[in-house]
Amino acid sequence: ADLTPSHSEAAQVVRYLPSQQYRPHFDWFDPTAGKSYRRKTAAGGQRAVTCLVYLAAPERGGRTSFPTLSLGFAPRVGDAVLWWNVDEAGVEDAGTLHAGDPVLCGEKWALNIWLRQRPRRGAGGSEGAGQGKGAGESCTRNGESDD
C-alpha cells in the first residue's frame, strides 16, 4: 500500500515531565466502538501506520515499550520508531499495544505522525490532513520508497 502526505493526520507534539507516562494503548481505532469508530474512520479509514520521532530525550526513563512483544526503545534525539497498526488485510494488530514509560529524570518531547489507510483530503480538526513528507514522496508497506 502506498502512503502519501494525503494519508496523514495533523502531526502531534507531546511532552512528558518526570513521572509522566502514557499507559499501554493502541493507536488504531477500536472497531467495536460503534458510532465513535465510524466517525473516526469516515475520513481516511483506520490508522495504518504510526511514526514516533524523538525530539528531546530525558536523562533517564521514557522508553517506548511494546509489552506483548517484549520490545522497548530508549528515546534518542532524531531517532524514530515506525510501526504498522494493521496487517496487510487491514485488520488491527494486537501486537501494537505500546506505552510511553515514565520519565524518571529530564523531559521527553516527541512527534506523533499517523497515516490512514486512505487519503484524507478535506478532513479537518485534530485528525486533519498534515504534511509529514515532501510533495511527491511516499512510503510503501515493504519499506521501499518510490523515489
UniProtKB/TrEMBL annotation:
Record's keyword terms, sorted: Dioxygenase, Iron, Metal-binding, Oxidoreductase
Pfam families noted in UniProt: 2OG-FeII_Oxy_3
Annotated PROSITE patterns: FE2OG_OXY (PS51471)
The protein's name: Fe2OG dioxygenase domain-containing protein
Natural source organism: Mantoniella antarctica
InterPro entries registered for this protein in UniProt: Oxoglu/Fe-dep_dioxygenase_dom (IPR005123), P4HA-like (IPR045054), Pro_4_hyd_alph (IPR006620), Pro_4_hyd_alph_FE2OG_OXY (IPR044862)
Residues covered by the Fe2OG dioxygenase domain: 7-117
Localisation per UniProt entry: Endoplasmic reticulum membrane
Membrane-crossing segments per the record: none
GO cellular component terms listed in the entry, alphabetical order: endoplasmic reticulum membrane
Membrane-protein topology: Single-pass type II membrane protein
Cofactor(s), by name: L-ascorbate
Catalytic activity as recorded in UniProt: L-prolyl-[collagen] + 2-oxoglutarate + O2 = trans-4-hydroxy-L-prolyl-[collagen] + succinate + CO2
Record's keyword annotation contains Repeat: no
GO molecular function, one term: L-ascorbic acid binding
Start and end residues of each stretch annotated as Disordered: 120-147
Biased composition (Gly residues): 122-135
